Automatic annotation (TrEMBL), chains A, B:
<feature type="binding site">
    <location>
        <position position="244"/>
    </location>
    <ligand>
        <name>a divalent metal cation</name>
    </ligand>
</feature>
<dbReference type="InterPro" id="IPR050312">
    <property type="entry name" value="IolE/XylAMocC-like"/>
</dbReference>
<dbReference type="InterPro" id="IPR004360">
    <property type="entry name" value="Glyas_Fos-R_dOase_dom"/>
</dbReference>
<dbReference type="Pfam" id="PF00903">
    <property type="entry name" value="Glyoxalase"/>
</dbReference>
<feature type="binding site">
    <location>
        <position position="139"/>
    </location>
    <ligand>
        <name>a divalent metal cation</name>
    </ligand>
</feature>
<feature type="domain" description="VOC">
    <location>
        <begin position="467"/>
        <end position="613"/>
    </location>
</feature>
<comment type="similarity">
    <text>Belongs to the bacterial two-domain DSD family.</text>
</comment>
<protein>
    <recommendedName>
        <fullName>3-dehydroshikimate dehydratase</fullName>
        <ecNumber>4.2.1.118</ecNumber>
    </recommendedName>
</protein>
<keyword id="KW-0479">Metal-binding</keyword>
<dbReference type="InterPro" id="IPR037523">
    <property type="entry name" value="VOC_core"/>
</dbReference>
<keyword id="KW-0413">Isomerase</keyword>
<dbReference type="InterPro" id="IPR036237">
    <property type="entry name" value="Xyl_isomerase-like_sf"/>
</dbReference>
<dbReference type="InterPro" id="IPR043700">
    <property type="entry name" value="DSD"/>
</dbReference>
<dbReference type="InterPro" id="IPR029068">
    <property type="entry name" value="Glyas_Bleomycin-R_OHBP_Dase"/>
</dbReference>
<comment type="pathway">
    <text>Aromatic compound metabolism; 3,4-dihydroxybenzoate biosynthesis.</text>
</comment>
<dbReference type="InterPro" id="IPR013022">
    <property type="entry name" value="Xyl_isomerase-like_TIM-brl"/>
</dbReference>
<feature type="binding site">
    <location>
        <position position="170"/>
    </location>
    <ligand>
        <name>a divalent metal cation</name>
    </ligand>
</feature>
Amino acid sequence: MRRDHLRTALATVCLSGTLEDKLVAASDAGFDGVEIFEPDLVAAPMRPGDVRVRCADLGLSVDLYQPFRDLDSNDPDRFAANLRRAERKFDVMAELGADTVLVCSSVSPDAVTDDDRLAEQLATLAERAGRRGMRIAYEALAWGAHVNTYEHSWDVVARADHPALGLCLDSFHILSRGSDPAPIAEIPGEKLFFLQLADAPHLSMDVLQWSRHHRLFPGQGAFDLPAFLRPVLAAGYAGPLSLEVFNDVFRQADPVPTAVDARRSLLALAEATALADAAPTGAADAAPTGAAGAGAALAGVAPTGAGLGAARRAVVVDPVAAPAPPLAGHAFVELTAEPTEADQLAEVLDSLGFVRTGRHRTKPVERWEQGRARVLINAGSRGGAAALGALAVESADPPAAARRAQRLLAPLLPRERGPAEADLAAVGAPDGTPLFFCRTGASGPGGWSSDFVPTGETAGDGFGITGIDHVGLSEPFDHFDEAALFYRSVLGLTPVSAGEFAAPFGLIRGRALTDDARTVRLALTVARLRRGDWAPAVADPQYVAFATDDVLATARAARAAGAPLLAIPDNYYDDLGSRLELPPDRLAAYRELGVLHTVDHPDGGVYLQVGTELLGGRLFLLLVQRVDGYDGYGWADAPVRMAAHRRNRLARATG
Amino acid sequence: MRRDHLRTALATVCLSGTLEDKLVAASDAGFDGVEIFEPDLVAAPMRPGDVRVRCADLGLSVDLYQPFRDLDSNDPDRFAANLRRAERKFDVMAELGADTVLVCSSVSPDAVTDDDRLAEQLATLAERAGRRGMRIAYEALAWGAHVNTYEHSWDVVARADHPALGLCLDSFHILSRGSDPAPIAEIPGEKLFFLQLADAPHLSMDVLQWSRHHRLFPGQGAFDLPAFLRPVLAAGYAGPLSLEVFNDVFRQADPVPTAVDARRSLLALAEATALADAAPTGAADAAPTGAAGAGAALAGVAPTGAGLGAARRAVVVDPVAAPAPPLAGHAFVELTAEPTEADQLAEVLDSLGFVRTGRHRTKPVERWEQGRARVLINAGSRGGAAALGALAVESADPPAAARRAQRLLAPLLPRERGPAEADLAAVGAPDGTPLFFCRTGASGPGGWSSDFVPTGETAGDGFGITGIDHVGLSEPFDHFDEAALFYRSVLGLTPVSAGEFAAPFGLIRGRALTDDARTVRLALTVARLRRGDWAPAVADPQYVAFATDDVLATARAARAAGAPLLAIPDNYYDDLGSRLELPPDRLAAYRELGVLHTVDHPDGGVYLQVGTELLGGRLFLLLVQRVDGYDGYGWADAPVRMAAHRRNRLARATG
């Protein structure tokens, strides 16, 4: 039996707001169920029965009630009190319509340390739960006093051997300890009562703090979630894929987009798991075959331990799971401006060696080209400074790419937002930027570019710009991890660089993504803390980086043509000269042209960049040359560039 | 010789902005000197000579150039290259007018691990520095590859035995490792070339990350800085007290108030060190004597290793250092509102059992009283919701307290801002809230209250409110640590509670301060991340907590008088009943009156609180009862109250 639906659930603790806000957001994002986090219920005016009704109205099942803490005790009186407490929670669950409660391993000093006694206490609780048609999902907290590995929790559950007692597996607790998830495949599927998924960055800190503040949705962190999920599904787990993510940013952000981000992460995870699963058969490259194999491989089994509450639905992945169609580069970048500023942008492109090759038939849009770099200037912007208006990538199969993006919850944008009349599908990135899918090599007649009337001028080699190296996107604070996952999943990119640098107005996190062939590169940045009033707009810049094989020649030609190249302080070159043995004439050329010379590590090549001055509140253009295989983004020198742009802005403000 | 001036310096890395912004802020705050952080200079358009001139214009000396990294090397070629690099930096220092450079212990894999060879390499560098009249201050990074304790760095410096080589001591690197600072007193003072001070909270994380993101100014964290500073001064250290604080918030905040906060921290540290130093003589309680003793104890000695660059000035503390005059409680709290809202506030105070005892002679201000709780309602607010307008404490010596506050850089507020005509001194807290010093017991005739015309009504026991328990202040994001230090130093309070709780709109940090007798308590809170658009104003509430010995009786009387008590969900009481064995009638009374019952730990007593509904955008009043010595602030239940206020606000918006 094949189902086309992946059951997904979300713990209410993932989201900001009150319980009512959270349920609406989870429903809007298409989740099938929720875990009710007890503090959310305790603070809610809705009685548990009202919550059940509300969830039903919203199409949500209540898949888990959590957490029940510190059940077991060496003190018989305390254990008895804990059982009474549990009965009250069973009352709540009965009203809620929840049949499974998460019991986490004790962190109390009186935690039972004899495994047989612990199993006995868990079985006692399970017996009481079972009588009421409920189940206990026992979870090992990574910082549990006695039980803190999934292997240990399974040992205790197996000892207890009670049909109403099973495991809750949480990827964070397991992967944060470096445990191998592969043996999970050996656990009987009917004893896997619940699965909580969370990713996280690698951090060297107290695991409790790491867990409580820095969890991420799958695909946003450093954990190998597909490798975790595979053995769980292989074991026969049949419950929902549920997210339990404690994250300081998500707890403070609008819950509606966060819930969409959350569900996208599960869809992408299921797809990645299916594809990875199919990969060993050699089918991963052939999308339909690979997907079918994956769908079959991931079809869950019905629980054999049924009869405990509602029947479990099988876990299946989207049967059309397929890799993103291959990319072949940036088709174009659109810059938007008011008419006067658009003229200035055109002048700058001209001074960088670009040629105006077309004018749109009906819109105030011009097409400029040099090498394979294509830039549209859209003079139809009303108000606001010049800015990055849209991204466009060349895709081997634009319709498939757009359908896939929609399946990954990317909003399809209405046609009128597109810069071209051709049938271009565009979806909205998390910050609202349109992202177009264009057919590979279709920038000529018949493709997206055919809506432009040729000017008669043709783009030649110009000043040596060969194409778009990457686009630099400063993301809104609440949407950084969301954006990284969006581009990763929707475009099929791979995260290649993550870093942090100290800029003049505070620390900045960076994350870059690219396709394997490095034809599409995106460099995302965000302030480590949301900015207040002090930082100027230029603290969060946007830019288009153009590739050249000889940045000195390109910059020199641009300078001669009047390009507004950004001046870099002499102090930078004094320091550079003290750090590296550079030929004096090269250093002099750098100093003259404002070249930043970045070396991330001795064998990692060199990155040379020359920026323009600001072309809007926070927009600039960049010339970059990658030497000896440099694969980063020059973040070490970004603070120097940013300080120069700050002066640039001050000069504009007073000039 | 007595000097009345403490030499203070600030590393530019402490502040946000470009080098120019930082120098101005440091000068405005009254610093005597700066450490120039190399990346700030490298990104600056000012040449080093321009920086020297600019600093001189601003009254700043350039006390240190930093850091020079990874000097030593097992590879002779690399060491030679590092010496060449150092010579270029000496060139920069000569232009800057800096005679001391910080060389930190190497973190490189090729760091020299033979101490004699390391000493030899340091001496080689020092010889070159000495020839140019410069000095090398060698610092052990806590994460240095080979040298990572101050003891080890001193051992190497002693081996090198070169007059131009000494130590830089950094309190973070020393205290973060748990090293004992006492033996520093045995190091010859002339070998202590520089002192960098930083505090930090206790965090269980990688020390490099801890250092780079979470340092604080002295008095804001958990380190015992007076105990660190004493042996340094005892050794004869004669340079400035300099701050090197890497902090994510400070790096993003307006540098002007941050620099003031920084300098205040040094003034308070010097005072605390002097007082602590004087304490064993029994003089700490007698301010003038104690201060004189302290000043003498801390008077630094002139460097015996002079001749290396500019002469060092002696370190002395403010000779009038004295403890804050004792407090005797909150004199009053002022609430401000527009006239209509002021009438509503008056109604609420009336319904809580307060009596209007006076009207101001000339201003639209009323005095309300119950027990020792005094509230002013100021109807002169123009625009904005009802809010906390001012705090006032009873001080044994208001003029001395105000002078002391000014010495600690608190701005004296113009008289017209005061609610009373009496000669009340007020200073501005970091968020701008006026803070008044009133004479203890002077609320009657002749004191601050004498500007009020008695209404003829007298305050009795009312409904059992005995006084102001505490004031809850939600601080602006950039000013939380600053506010904590401000109240701590200016009022002479002690931090007693620090915590964090998960509120509906994100995590909140809390910090409480009190005088030893618990007569003045302040509970400061702040969102862990700066809020965006999603969170409502009520996410950051202000409140006045009134003490009662029987919160049930007080709340019942208030309820009967029509007080708008905040409704707490039944779910809360179901949960409370499951957790604690409470008599059914007590639980029923809690449920009826909206009492929150908080237990932080089994032996810590009980906190009972009943809130009012919102009286403005984020203002409410609270009735609290402390049972069995409870000494916290009920943070565990704050999220429930906050969710209830959110509903309250929604109801007001739609009602």
